Amino acid sequence: MGRIAQPVYLPKGGTHYQPISWDNAFKKIAHHLNSLASPDEAAFYTSGRTSNEASFMYQLFVREFGTNNLPDCSNMCHESSGVGLTETIGIGKGTVTLDDFYDTDVIIIMGQNPGTNHPRMLSALEKAKKNGAKIIAVNPLFEAGLMAFKNPQTVKGVLGFSTQLADLYLQVKINGDLALLKAIEKLLYGAEQENPGKVFDQQFIQNKTVGYEVFVDLLQQYNIDELAVACSVPLSQIKEAAETLKHKNRIIICWAMGITQHVNGVDTIKEIVNLVLLKGSIGKTGSGLCPVRGHSNVQGNRTMLIWENPGKKQLDKLKEVCGFEPPRKKGYDVVEAIKAMQQGKLKVFFAMGGNFISATPDTLYTAEPMRKLKLTVQVSTKLNRSHLVHGEEAIILPTLSRSDKDMVNGEAQFISCENSMGVVQLSKGVLEPISKDLLNENQIVCKLAKATLGSRSVIDWDKYADSYDAVRDVIAKVIPGFEEYNQKVRQPAGFYLPNAPREGKFENTGFEGKAPFTITELPVNKIADDEYMLTTIRSHDQFNTTIYGLDDRYRGVYNERRVIFMNETDMQKAGFKTGEKVDLFNYSGGVERAARLFVVVPYNIPECNTAAYYPETNVLVPIDSVAEKSNTPTSKLIIIKIKKHQSPLSD
Ligand SMILES: Nc1nc2c(c(=O)[nH]1)N[C@H]1C(S)=C(S)[C@@H](COP(=O)(O)OP(=O)(O)OC[C@H]3O[C@@H](n4cnc5c(=O)[nH]c(N)nc54)[C@H](O)[C@@H]3O)O[C@H]1N2
Ligand SMILES: Nc1nc2c(c(=O)[nH]1)N[C@H]1C(S)=C(S)[C@@H](COP(=O)(O)OP(=O)(O)OC[C@H]3O[C@@H](n4cnc5c(=O)[nH]c(N)nc54)[C@H](O)[C@@H]3O)O[C@H]1N2
Ligand SMILES: [Mo]
Asked: Least enclosed by CB within 10 Å: which of 18, 267, 536, 595?
């Protein structure tokens, strides 16, 4: 079933991984770590599945070892949301709860495909609609899962009736979102001037925000027709969106990767905040900001300090409670870690889950230095590509998955996670583990810490290895909002973490309890005549880099993943027929990046825009193409050329 049942080791020059005992595996890793010239020569990656408990212990080990090199999948995912929200509302998280969906007037869904990626959200949307909410979708692709929804759990759903989900579908061009938001704001401002106080929430603006005057002054300088062209949505539809919002203030805006993975991802998120502030749609029922996360505990990982750059306050607290001086120098994020490998500054790479080589950009650029590392270690539930692109020596440590029974000293344990809405809940596996030889992630961390740090450590690793309750007790002392963690997590529905903006309070913004309007600029997305914009997306049959099947049923694609969705006019211009075999190229920085042998599929997508699946297209994403401030690879806008397929051997 693709699961791994025992630790395995690949010696230098070896061709096969071979079984190794846990003790020897830990000794080998400890030896490599302790031989480094500096702890900063190691990096410790995390994918977003690791529980709060294991994440906390992992960062504790890494920091006591002496580095902040904690890159994580967030760096490629919602980092732009974290940055954009922290700079505006003072906390890098969303502000809505599930109940808000059931009592709202308008939900805007931007750059997100919930039909495939967040199917459980569909029931919430269906219920919202039933309660009278209008849904506006913003997406370059007409996603079937956003257009209509068949709920298999209702009689009507089973009989094939479907709810129309989106009331208005705004087909922006790739990265046209910022222009669209400004266009909507401009129209609303016009209406506000005609009817002062009837469109914007002036009281909220007065009491809770700063920078309104400057913001609207600059907004006025934009030309509405130019904004419509910049987002490529017909003005009539933008007017319809503004009309829908005009007299409503219970508004929720959701977004995901279609917004975050752009050069200006942080700015687009700030513009989403601007719109919400104008309408006073935050800190009250049925309204707010909703970045929809990916991995089950990616938000919790960050709360537990899986972060290359945590604030001074949090590190001071860690020092006070845990009794050692944590390193203060900023560590590497994902892209910085790859570059550090290229420069020979990293020698050991340790991954707590994930599939680094397949998830990261510029696959060939990244693979080359990975192969030169002294040691790569992967803690994995399943085999994947990253086990094949390894250092001189390599170790795979198997672990329990979330669905496995986690027995410690004869007792089934539970762990806990935080979801997108800031709810912390426990989770307990039920399946019999595939082998008695598996350790949970927390045990792996504690045993490795003990083997590596030995008498240097001030932490009682044995105690924590055997007791999640003990781990939760220390988390309760270090992380704000987790006081009485062990009691609260045992409540049936878990507990909400404190979230000031949800209560209409804007602490930590640097503006005395107020939220700032921020000034953004439109991106310049220029392409040459023979170039296209490519956005990389998920199909229905995958979870990130794990491909379960070759179908993408909502988009009508079967038995094939190497497809490129193209506008029909573009196909005609280029002389491509349906099913044409093509090669894709990116030439950024004077390097040729090629993804060969794709099949052209005509699709309802704006001209000059194309889409293809991740991770097959990651070879095309230039390492230097990253979002400003969040350093997230721009996986949703890669400039490509498309040529008829040629075998690389034919010339
Ligand atoms: N089944 C399944 N579920 C998953 C995952 C999975 O792989 N499979 N992955 C998980 C993870 S880690 C994450 S982060 C989430 C990802 O969830 P999503 O963000 O929904 O995933 P993507 O397929 O990357 O798609 C983004 C959507 O944005 C649109 N889009 C692309 N470019 C733009 C743009 O410029 N503007 C706008 N407005 N839209 C754009 C695409 O057409 C697509 O509908 O899903 C999580 N859930
Ligand atoms: N071009 C392009 N690139 C992208 C994206 C994109 O949209 N386009 N999306 C980005 C995003 S949003 C994300 S989140 C990243 C995902 O990046 P990753 O999180 O690194 O990738 P996954 O495919 O989710 O990792 C899957 C592997 O995790 C391991 N695993 C699963 N569950 C567990 C567990 O409980 N414990 C442990 N130890 N291991 C486990 C399994 O071995 C499995 O093979 O990819 C990013 N890369
Ligand atoms: Mo993600």
From this structure: 18
